[in-house]
Prior knowledge:
A: Rossmann fold; CATH 2.40.50.1020; 2 domains; 5-stranded parallel sheet; B: 324 residues; 9 helices
Amino acid sequence: MLPSPRGLRVLAVDDVPLALxxxxxxxxxxxxxxxxxxxxxxxxALRNIQADRxxxxxxxxxxxxxxxxxxxxxxxxxxxxxxxxxxxAHEEHAVTAYGIGAVDYLLKPVRAERxxxxxxxxxxxxxxxxxxxxxHRVRRPDAMAVLPVETAGRTRYVRRSxxxxxxxxxxxxxxxxxxxxxxxxxxxSRLEEYWADSGFLRVHRGYLxxxxxxxxxxxxxxxxxxxxxxxxxxxxxRRHARELREQLLHAAQTGMFDDPTRGA
Amino acid sequence: xxxxKDGLSGPGAxxxxxxxxxxxxTPGLGLADLSGNLVWSGHSPDSDAVATLVDHxxxxxxxxxxxxxxxxxxxxxxxxxxxxVVAGPIRRSALREAASWVADAVERGRLEASADRAEQAExxxxxxxxxxxxxxxxxxxxxxLMRSDPDQASELMLDFADYTxxxxxxxxxxxxxxxxxxxxxTYLALQRAVLGDRLRVQVRVAPEVLGVAIPYLVLQxxxxxxxxxxxxxxxxxxxxxVTGEAEGNDCVISIEDDGVGMDPERAREILAGRGGSxxxxxxxxxxxxxHVYGPWYGLVVETAVDAGTRVIVRxxxxxxxxxx
Lengths: 264, 324
């Protein structure tokens, strides 16, 4: 199923009125979302789904009558089922949630930045359904492993593995490497797309960082988070902090940081 | 022999000596603890001679006669716990049997005490997690911000939800350093709202230790302690620094405040669990770490009066059987 061109059509289901209001408010504020329909009990949710087409359903788990897990089970039997995201107060439900094919689960109260991550997964899921593996996607891990840079009229090549972090600078990006800073004409969002599978993560509107280059995570009284590399600190926006932590934890657990030659 | 439940130096030792003397029908009988402190019942003999004899038995760990005195060591657990001294004639077999009664009573008392302590530690672990003082301060601040700064109020409410979710979690015994750090950052964000400019914070963690398994809620009580004892009691601003890094095969986490500090002797008392109800957190964390990783992995507290306090947690980066 393709996401609707004017943004996602989302059904939000929760039997607690103010929780539903808040969930709808957060969904409407998200750029990926086009339209939000609210249902305050599982039966009217079913009626809505029968009458209309939704890209995604955000579903509370504990509801009277038919709980969220049962409702999701019913939905999964549809020929063209919407993507399910559970919203729950209890972490124990997570295992069940994934077991029946939900793409994500959100803990109540919901944070805007966590909701944004869930919507990214929804969009990815919907596009994967139509175009599972494009040739472009297969090539991507090797794309742009080396970037040409112009220095004083001469073309040099910068290896991706030498880049610690990337800073947006208008239509250009600044590549920070131990040999110096190189300017390349390319929007940071393009480079993010190319390098996402090579251990680079967008941690801020203006910054892309190599996970393996991070020496320390630092936070201070202002509450701001910094990723410290040997070439300087990279600011991490609140919106990206959680994903950075998750990716770093995953990298640590898979041994990325176990290299004994890794200096401080 | 319930009189000996607090050991040979406990308050019941004198009564135990009296009963034992009647039972053995001897003119005089004494019980000495490991330091040679003696309780005596009945006819008083030459006290210098008794002291010499007790000392001799404690050193040599064998029975010894010095007529009319006879002394025999009391074995409890895996070593000598004290000495039984009898004045007057007694059969050697009767003396041995009496010594073994005393040993049993001391042993049973020790076991009961340690079971008690374990139970208390568990209760304290449950109670130490959420400090009411902190909870109501945070809620008061949020209530006030709802009028003046609704966005911040909402943000802090979400932090508060994370804080309680983590503190109430009953998932397993272990979590990751990553989650523990996230929990203290959430806690410190709330504390900054409560204490304002008085609290300055620096948190630094190296990614290589993020995946290390660690018992639940080890860091939060230590950071709470740093705020409560290092920052809150004094006027002016204070700095709390938390760092986590790899040191060889260990993960070392340090929690430091530049606050009022304390006498190192007092820090030792607190770690030993004798610091009073105000500081159970530290002793509890110390005990849990030792329980999981062995006696070498207890807390290290570096402090002095007016010199701040640094608490160091050291856990192995890879420990069989310890999984988040």
